[in-house]
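Hi F.,

I've been meaning to write this up properly since the lab meeting, where we talked about keeping a consistent format for the predictions we share between groups. The idea is simple: the sequence comes first, exactly as it goes in, then the structure tokens exactly as they come out, then a line or two of notes. No screenshots and no reformatting. I'm using this chain as the first example so we have something concrete to point to.
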Amino acid sequence: MLQDKQGRPTTEGVVNLRRIMSIENVEHVLISIIGIVIYASPITLAKDNVTYLQDIVLIDKSCFAVMLTISSHFIYGPNALDNIKDAIPFLICGLTVEKNTDGISLHCGIDTTITIDPRCKKARRMMCWFLKHRFAQHKVNWIKRCSFSLFITLKISNPRRTTINEFMNMDHEINCRIIGRLVGVNLE
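Output, unedited:
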């Protein structure tokens, strides 16, 4: 875990969640993130009947939501998974990124450490931002109320943002998903 000289968690080298899209060779990259939990699934028992698993969705100031499956191996304390609920900051070090047709997800490795509600300035600032930011609150409500699977919900909620000029300059042989259309502008 990243710690300063006094043993407190530090946020040096933390990656923005939107920037994980641009990581090229994801197989050999370990990242550290800080984010707010916006969704925590019910706790399930793994196939080995010993390990408990939980899917959580994290968001940061980029408003990019990413899913992470955590197990009881990475959280210390017998009831730690029960204490994971909405609006709790996480500092996670040593994550791997997986890109596939379902989108992007994060995975814990052997050296992953997870700190729930870290005592650092960045976590406090992000918590204040999250409580005041209206778009983040709308995104949280949409993810919780959506009837799609969690993977599809995250794919829809994290679209690639393209300006009109970029769209006009695109090769139109590429399949694009248009999510909106400007009909008129009222300048009054």
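Notes:
The beta strands are 31-40, 44-45, 52-59, 66-71, 89-100, 103-116.
The chain has four helices and six strands.

If this format works for you, I'll send the rest the same way.

G.
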